[in-house]
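Morning, I've got a small favour to ask if you have a moment. It would help a lot if you went through both lines with me. Thanks so much in advance, here it is.

***
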Amino acid sequence: MPRVRRWQLDGDFHHIVVKGHDGDPIVSSADEADELLDRLGRAFREERLVATSVAFLTTHGHIEGVGRIEAFSRAIRSTLGPFAQTRNLRLSRSGAMFTNRFWSEPIVDDGHAVNTPPYILLNARKAGLVHSVPALRGYRWCSYGHTFHGDSFPVPIDLDVLFGRYAEDADLARKILRETLDAGEARWLEDLRMKTVEAIIRVVAANRGVPENLIRRGDATRWVSAARCDIVLEVRRRRLPVAAETLARELGVSPRTIWRMWRRLPAD
């Protein structure tokens, strides 16, 4: 069966992801990561492509750039093929190193355009490779250091294009982007904490400005009931293995109330 042609919107941004075959590592040392990014940078320059944000981890890499998808295909192909051959020889291995086809998605609206660079830049933070957003500067396989401090980076980055999404003034745009990164990190940390019913109750109570004890004792005021619905929604969204009876005890209501709330919640 022939491959489906990639969606091409000429001149639009593209979010590209390359992955190791079956989740295998694509690099096994800092030198290999440097080599991969150096090859990618040369390929981008040959194709006259620019990126706005780049981040490579052990098993995959994210790139956002502007240009025709055919040019990105040539650049990715000329990068990954020779790199994989060299790495296979070095490690005395054989077989596929990358998935057969890189993933790509055109960025077609303003919301997507504003949110994609922070998503890419936060990858190393979310993977636990650095302990904070400022520490991303020391992670040289991410374009954060170039974006915020002017550090050298092997892949060409167009900061004018990147900052133009956030503000006309570069300093203001850099400030907005940094605040967006901080907010994204905060949401990620909050999401990590919300792994139990107790944590969800605590976070929802704080977000709603409702005392936690009122939620737990079954108070029926409007704002407490709204918080309780948020809690049930989070439990379902996260697929926590919690019985209705247990959740009912935590919220000070009957299991029948939990089931009634559950049925009224929007579908996933």
